[in-house]
Amino acid sequence: MESTKRLALAQLISSVGDGAYYVGSALYFTLIVGLSPAQVGLGLTVGWAVGSVAGVALGHVADRRGPKGTAVFLGLGTAASVTAFLFVGSAVAFVIAACVYACFQCGLGAARQALLAGLIDPAERTTFRARLQAMSNAGIAIGAALGGVALALGTREAFLTVFVVDALAFVVAALVLRKVPSVSPVPVKTGEPSVAVLRDRPYALLALLNMIMLLYMPLFSLVLPLWISTRTAAPGWLVSAMLVLNTASVVVFQVRVARGVTGLRSASRYARYAGLLLFFSCLIFSFSAMSSSAWTAALVLLAGAALQVVGEMAQAAGSWEIGFGLAPEGKQGQYQGLFGAGTAVARMLGPVLLTGLILVGGALGWVVLGGLFLLAGTLTTPAVRWAERTRSLRRELEDGGAAAHAEEFDREVVVGQLAARP
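Predicted structure:
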């Protein structure tokens, strides 16, 4: 019980830092440092691309060296990389700092997930992960409020304070994780590939489908604000109302939603529901441009946002069960690194893909995006079944191999005993 509280506390503290960073970082680099939006976008894209690859490798390190020590080290590394942003003065320096930051962040996520898997009973992992998600949203909301103060002040000192708060949050979170019980590392078996997840095609497919579902991430931070201001008659303040609705819903209801996921079958069903809900939410968002009434457009957008957050929570609950349930014990770090890469890729490609799709394509773009959600959610069920079949076959082969080795050993013992007779 004490370990779960510390895991949740570490998640809350680091999320406060994340929230402050997300709100203030882009404007700091453009307004204070003097980088262009294109340079900032390029740096973040390159950074998350590198981080998505590094997350698998660092997750493997967590498996081999132990997830607790690895998570503490990567948490301190994240703090150091945030501090490095204070000294960025050029586009090249920003790209380098963004790469280092993304590598530590992605690796930290994989190590934390491996630590969670080692400390929490498999039947409780999804529900506990939902608690962490609720804590994370609460922390991000607190951090965003702090970042909002820096935006209001608009001074270099205010923005630098945000980065200091972010760095200190990761240091404190790492110190909290030091008090969590250790999970023993698992050595590589003879003849086994060092990074087995790269050969697990069903799991790689599920990671890809999860990445597609995570394309909802830039909706509230980028796409909907631009859509509302350029394509609808809704008031600009509606963006804040929708973000509050989303954050508060996750904090209050995510754990309740996750309780319905009790295994891979229910997780697959939740993924289908999520795809369907996200599809209809996109359709509703597209309708918001059809009314010249500000209140009608606002009500349509709020309805779409309500449907979207339910789909988001269903998708999250299903994906946690799938990501944990299909990862072999002893390899949670590298498997969570690959599955978690979907977040980094969504952050990297989502803004470019969705702004082009929605702002250029209009209502048709919303339909295409909804269709992607629907397709990914529908394909999750056969992909999970494929993964289950491969694991069942592997267990049969391993059991058969063990039996064969036992039979061979017995023959050698008998032959040795006969040869020893006079």
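Summary: The two ends are 64 Å apart (CA to CA).
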